[in-house]
């Protein structure tokens, strides 16, 4: 018979002790305690307006999920496969314990053949994660991490214990599907397919594992008018030559060509009894670590070409990641695609994302760097942990290995850095802290089940020096900018690959006011402060404002705009600076793209998908063709990251603090494909000692304009916010004609101050010379919202000029 896989989702209930006594609730699979209680109205949704306080008790609550699975007739073997149990689970069927597990990142199966002919009572008991973790911490000693939460004693999503951008949402539940599987002649347990290109020839590694009497396996690779079929035996691991198949190319380098691979298990009669389909793209990935001077490159190369990574760090998109639908992934990934992102790092404190995520990246040609799930902690190297890590890696590599977008594996986030730099050595007192996972367990699993992709043991990482924070090679994380210095310091760094850096600022006004249930945002409000999880985050936001503005902003739209502006400036300068080191630096991966709840955080897109000013800054900085005024070098830098020459008129303007245009100059420029050029300011302006002028530099080349204040010191004086606005509503759209009567810097329309729903604005942080005008388009979700926005257009239009006057 053909293998039958039925999903088991019906009739689940959740029983647990609540503050109101022992209770039973309807439960969802996939699901979690939190989402079941949200559905039952017991707690609010922390992604919208629920509070941490109302759900604090859940982290210490044992829970039981149960359901009756209807009787099945028909012969063969029956198994229950659990794709994900979060986390300390004991599974019993009809009262008999069948499984104990403590790793949410892997799947487990149990045999239920002897009981499946009757109705089965399935019970999954979850031990409360927090008390158990604390107990282990007592028994094993403290394995340090910066959060003082024991997330490192078993394999559970680290950030659910709270992070510097996320709430504590320690939960339990059946977070991935359960399958009732029925089979007799044979079953495919594991199909691993990995595509590569060796010596110019596309190759496919096909590895199968299964059980039963059937042993013949057929494989069919097809698409784009090509097809290749062959047969092999179950349990084999072989590499097939796929000559003539097209290559998969990352964004900007050609088509992201994908082929489907169908692997079928055949019985003696040649009938298909089980099948698995995957999608692959043929490409070869390598890391360029060539020497230059006393340094080394760190460049991800696909098909032999360096892909300059215009990247973002990705965190779980929901505190309860089982809720993230394919549509939600698609919306977020298309949004980042629209700002020219070509690389995503899936960060190690989260999860191995669902296949939907990697499917989208495969299709769009976005390259993905996947961390194994270790973050900012020492991890106990117990025999049980070694087993868990090995099995988890085996499963993750098998599931994700087919995805063309996945180009690099990484041992984890900042664990080696933590050991070297965060004072762990004393408390660890010689105990092993996880390094063997990164240097042995994970590379061994990769060699066995992948064998095609580069791997680094962690990030940051140095390929030249012992110290992972060394700047002469590998990947770097740059955090002093946010913590202490302000963004000008980015311009003193020259990493080989900037894998983390970012600047924190408020999520959308609309998202945050809704979350705290107040009409205003006040930086001194303790309810608002609960949404800022960064260490001393509100102080650091305030420090940034002091560095940038001589006036004080502490609440209301002025504070909100100013704080978003500082984040946006930091994002723009950081990204453009790393891009301007085009030859020696091969990537900028901004921390962070998304948010999991209403937050004041490093995200550029907030949890409700509202675009922060930093999102627009990222869009400017990630354009294929970019202009950047370097503050340190006092140069104008032009980058052409396209295959076409860039030929246009370069217009430059030197503007005084009161908006007077001091000098203008123009010249024709031609930039070769994939090249950069720079001009000293003294070369392009006649005015001497530009550094002494309290004013602005404005440059435009074709469509692209950039503007930057010359001084770093806090701005004292700007001319008035003299703009004329003419607004017009057309359906759900508001068209605004903005006319500048003096020099206007960073004009931004903030419809979220009044609109009910998510609204997008065509352009933000606009600089206009005296007399110039621009048409800004605001897309609302309804005509009512558009009317509201139009009626308040003066009120919601901000600029540096308005802020300072
Ligand atoms: C890095 C990340 C995260 C953290 C971020 C902001 O260390 O790896 O752990 O959220 O910085 O502090």
TrEMBL record:
<dbReference type="InterPro" id="IPR013783">
    <property type="entry name" value="Ig-like_fold"/>
</dbReference>
<feature type="domain" description="Beta-mannosidase-like galactose-binding">
    <location>
        <begin position="21"/>
        <end position="176"/>
    </location>
</feature>
<protein>
    <recommendedName>
        <fullName>beta-mannosidase</fullName>
        <ecNumber>3.2.1.25</ecNumber>
    </recommendedName>
</protein>
<dbReference type="GO" id="GO:0004567">
    <property type="term" value="F:beta-mannosidase activity"/>
</dbReference>
<dbReference type="InterPro" id="IPR054593">
    <property type="entry name" value="Beta-mannosidase-like_N2"/>
</dbReference>
<dbReference type="InterPro" id="IPR008979">
    <property type="entry name" value="Galactose-bd-like_sf"/>
</dbReference>
<keyword id="KW-0732">Signal</keyword>
<feature type="domain" description="Glycoside hydrolase family 2 immunoglobulin-like beta-sandwich">
    <location>
        <begin position="213"/>
        <end position="283"/>
    </location>
</feature>
<dbReference type="InterPro" id="IPR017853">
    <property type="entry name" value="GH"/>
</dbReference>
<dbReference type="GO" id="GO:0006516">
    <property type="term" value="P:glycoprotein catabolic process"/>
</dbReference>
<dbReference type="InterPro" id="IPR050887">
    <property type="entry name" value="Beta-mannosidase_GH2"/>
</dbReference>
<dbReference type="InterPro" id="IPR006102">
    <property type="entry name" value="Ig-like_GH2"/>
</dbReference>
<dbReference type="GO" id="GO:0005975">
    <property type="term" value="P:carbohydrate metabolic process"/>
</dbReference>
<dbReference type="Pfam" id="PF00703">
    <property type="entry name" value="Glyco_hydro_2"/>
</dbReference>
<dbReference type="Pfam" id="PF22666">
    <property type="entry name" value="Glyco_hydro_2_N2"/>
</dbReference>
<comment type="similarity">
    <text>Belongs to the glycosyl hydrolase 2 family.</text>
</comment>
<keyword id="KW-0378">Hydrolase</keyword>
<dbReference type="InterPro" id="IPR036156">
    <property type="entry name" value="Beta-gal/glucu_dom_sf"/>
</dbReference>
<feature type="domain" description="Glycoside hydrolase family 2 catalytic">
    <location>
        <begin position="300"/>
        <end position="421"/>
    </location>
</feature>
<dbReference type="Pfam" id="PF02836">
    <property type="entry name" value="Glyco_hydro_2_C"/>
</dbReference>
<dbReference type="InterPro" id="IPR006103">
    <property type="entry name" value="Glyco_hydro_2_cat"/>
</dbReference>
<keyword id="KW-0326">Glycosidase</keyword>
């Amino acid at each position: 018979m053909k293998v039958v896989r039925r999903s088991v989702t019906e009739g689940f209930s959740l029983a647990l002790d609540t503050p109101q006594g022992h209770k039973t609730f309807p439960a969802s699979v996939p699901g979690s305690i939190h989402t079941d209680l949200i559905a039952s109205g017991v707690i609010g949704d922390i992604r919208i307006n629920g509070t941490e306080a109302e759900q604090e008790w859940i982290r210490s609550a044992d829970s039981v999920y149960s359901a009756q699975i209807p009787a099945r007739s028909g012969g063969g073997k029956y198994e229950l496969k659990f794709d994900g149990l979060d986390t300390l689970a004991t599974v019993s069927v009809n009262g008999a314990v069948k499984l104990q597990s403590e790793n949410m990142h892997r799947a487990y199966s149990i045999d239920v053949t002897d009981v499946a002919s009757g109705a089965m009572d399935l019970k999954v008991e979850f031990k409360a994660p927090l008390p158990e973790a604390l107990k282990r911490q007592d028994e094993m000693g403290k394995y340090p991490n910066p959060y003082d939460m024991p997330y490192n004693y078993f394999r559970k999503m680290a950030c659910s214990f709270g992070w510097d951008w996320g709430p504590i949402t320690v939960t339990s539940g059946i977070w991935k599907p359960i399958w009732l599987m029925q089979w007799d002649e044979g079953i495919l347990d594991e199909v691993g397919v990995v595509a590569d290109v060796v010596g110019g020839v596309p190759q496919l590694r096909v590895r199968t594992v299964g059980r039963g009497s059937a042993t013949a396996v057929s494989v069919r690779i097809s698409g784009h008018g090509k097809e290749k079929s062959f047969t092999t035996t179950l349990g084999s691991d072989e590499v097939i030559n796929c000559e003539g198949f097209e290559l998969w190319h990352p964004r900007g380098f050609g088509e992201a060509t994908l082929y489907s691979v169908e692997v079928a298990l055949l019985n003696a009669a040649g009938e298909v009894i089980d099948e698995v389909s995957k999608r692959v793209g043929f490409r070869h990935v390598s890391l360029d670590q060539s020497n230059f001077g006393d340094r080394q490159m760190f460049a991800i190369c696909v098909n032999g070409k360096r892909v300059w990574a215009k990247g973002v760090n990705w965190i779980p998109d929901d505190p309860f990641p089982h809720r993230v639908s394919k549509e939600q992934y698609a919306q977020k990934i298309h949004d980042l695609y629209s700002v020219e992102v070509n690389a995503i790092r899936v960060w190690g404190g989260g999860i191995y994302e669902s296949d939907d995520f990697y499917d989208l990246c495969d299709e769009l040609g976005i390259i993905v760097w996947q961390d194994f799930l270790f973050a900012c902690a020492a991890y106990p190297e117990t025999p049980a942990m070694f087993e868990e890590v090995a099995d988890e890696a085996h499963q993750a590599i098998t599931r994700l290995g087919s995805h063309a977008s996945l180009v690099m594996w990484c041992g984890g986030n900042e664990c080696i850095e933590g050991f070297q730099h965060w004072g762990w050595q004393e408390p660890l007192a010689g105990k092993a802290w996880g390094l063997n996972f990164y240097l042995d367990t994970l590379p061994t699993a990769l060699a066995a089940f992948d064998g095609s992709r580069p791997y680094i043991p962690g990030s940051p990482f140095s390929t030249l020096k012992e110290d992972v924070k060394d700047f002469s090679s590998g990947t770097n994380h740059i955090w002093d900018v946010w913590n202490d210095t302000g963004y000008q310091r980015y311009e003193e760094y020259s990493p080989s690959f900037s894998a983390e850096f970012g600047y924190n600022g408020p999520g959308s006004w609309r998202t945050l006011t809704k979350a705290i249930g107040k009409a205003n945002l006040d930086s001194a409000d303790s309810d608002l402060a609960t949404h800022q999880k960064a260490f001393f985050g509100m102080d650091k936001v305030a420090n940034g404002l002091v560095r940038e503005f001589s006036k004080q902003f502490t609440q209301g739209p002025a504070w909100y705009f100013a704080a978003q502006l500082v984040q946006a400036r930091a994002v723009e300068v950081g990204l453009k600076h790393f891009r301007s080191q085009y030859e020696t630096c091969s990537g900028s991966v901004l921390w962070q793209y998304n948010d999991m709840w209403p937050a004041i955080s490093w995200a550029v897109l907030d949890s409700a998908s509202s675009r922060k000013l930093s999102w627009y800054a990222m869009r400017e900085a990630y354009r294929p063709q970019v202009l950047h005024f370097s503050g340190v070098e006092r140069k104008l830098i032009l980058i052409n990251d396209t295959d076409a020459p860039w030929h246009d008129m370069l217009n430059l303007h030197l503007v005084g603090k009161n908006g007077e245009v001091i000098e203008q100059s123009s010249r024709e420029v031609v930039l070769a494909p994939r090249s950069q050029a720079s001009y000293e300011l003294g070369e392009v302006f006649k005015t001497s000692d530009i550094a002494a002028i309290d004013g602005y530099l404005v440059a435009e080349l074709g469509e692209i304009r950039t503007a930057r204040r010359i001084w770093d010191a806090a701005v004292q004086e700007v001319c008035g916010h003299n703009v004329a606005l003419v607004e017009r509503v057309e359906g759900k759209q508001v068209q605004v004609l903005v006319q500048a009567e003096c020099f206007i810097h960073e004009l931004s329309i903030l419809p979220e101050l009044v609109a009910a729903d998510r609204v997008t604005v065509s352009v933000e942080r606009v600089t206009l010379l005296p007399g110039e005008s621009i048409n800004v388009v605001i897309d609302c979700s309804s005509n009512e919202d558009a009317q509201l926005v139009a009626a308040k257009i003066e009120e919601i239009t901000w600029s540096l000029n308005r802020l300072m006057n």
